[in-house]
Write a structure and sequence with these properties.
The complex is a heterodimer of chains A (213) and B (135). With 213 residues, chain A is of the alpha/beta class. Chain A has a single domain (37-210), classed as 3-Layer(aba) Sandwich (Rossmann fold). Chain A has helices at residues 25-28, 49-56, 116-123, 142-151, 170-177, 193-210; strands at 3-4, 23-24, 35-43, 62-70, 85-99, 102-110, 128-133, 155-160, 185-188. Chain A has a seven-stranded mixed sheet, with helices on both faces. Chain A has a two-stranded antiparallel ribbon with strand order 1-2. In chain A, helix 2 (49-56) packs across helix 6 (193-210). Chain A is globular. Chain B is mainly alpha-helical. Helix content of chain B is 35%, strand content 7%. Chain B has five helices and three strands; from the N terminus they run E-H-H-E-H-H-E-H. In chain B, strands 2-1-3 form a three-stranded antiparallel sheet. The chains are: A alpha/beta (213), B mainly alpha (135). At the A-B interface, helix 1, strand 3, strand 4, strand 5 and strand 6 of A face strand 1, helix 2, helix 3, helix 4 and helix 5 of B.
Amino acid sequence: MDSVVSDVSRVSGFPGPEPEEELKAWQTDRTRAPVATKIVVAGGFGVGKTTLVTAVSEITPLQTEALMTEASEETDDLTATPGKNTTTVAMDFGRITLDDDLVLYLFGTPGQQRFWFMWDDLVRGAIGAVVLADTRRLSDCFPALDYFESCGLPYVVAVNHFDGSERFQAEDVREALTVPPHIPVMIMDARRRISAIETLLALVGHALEVSPE
Amino acid sequence: MPKLPVRGGDRKPARVRPYSLTGGRTRFGHVLLVETFVTSTAALEAPEERKELPNGSLATRVMPEMQAIVELCRRMRTVAEIAALLKMPLGVVRVLLSDLADQGKIRVYGTGTGHGPGRPDRALLERVLGGLRRL
């Protein structure tokens, strides 16, 4: 992959310090944009989404925030919610340049029911989703599974194995999650780059399988 | 061995909002997804160093946020990256980008998947698979 060392645009003032990074050739070529594609990484709080994104990203993951109206715990019907609160939801993203003209973005997003509208926007055009699960708090990933199943986005289940936690077989987790046999369920370690790449490979392979010819 | 909780065991599946395709589109039909690339349209031959902000009337009329976005977009940027670097909510950045695009100050690129905001096609998936295998 071609890349050039950054020697430009130490932008002073408003935008704030941008981490100095190795610039890819496509970043400075304004005559054409690379193909941009994305994978969503979902799961409960603290399950390792940011860890996974960090393990494979070529940049230090950046954080964006979305302002949103918070629904109450029991409903997603915002119009009927009196006294709505505005809340801020953080989303981490990383980047992998796969070719001179092909860039993959990874978006780690909170898998809470009340953040659905964030997902609606995120899943548009996505390859698919990695649903990260922690067997100590397996139910935290239920909303994400429900969501991706209902919108038809290809997904895989990645059980992030934490040191000291009980080791389950992938098939036990599949059964508990009632995930159909054709969907990959894997035990992995989100801290390890190889493990994270294997998970992404499983997802893209699965997306290809279910994509119409 | 502790028992894993079973999904759907004692609860209704989460109700899901209908998929909405209304947001993120500018007046002239640009689609601004989080991964959409944008660049400024300022002369390509312009030197990279920052130009002094003009004193007086023009400077006061240009919102500093808009100016900051144009500055950032001297390089290829995604919508999400701009929001992150400027520490502004995604929704706000989309609105500003939409205005800047309508004014011709930034250029919005298609995501290159060829089919608008739908699912990536098989050719793209094959390319991503190949790229990941080479990592």
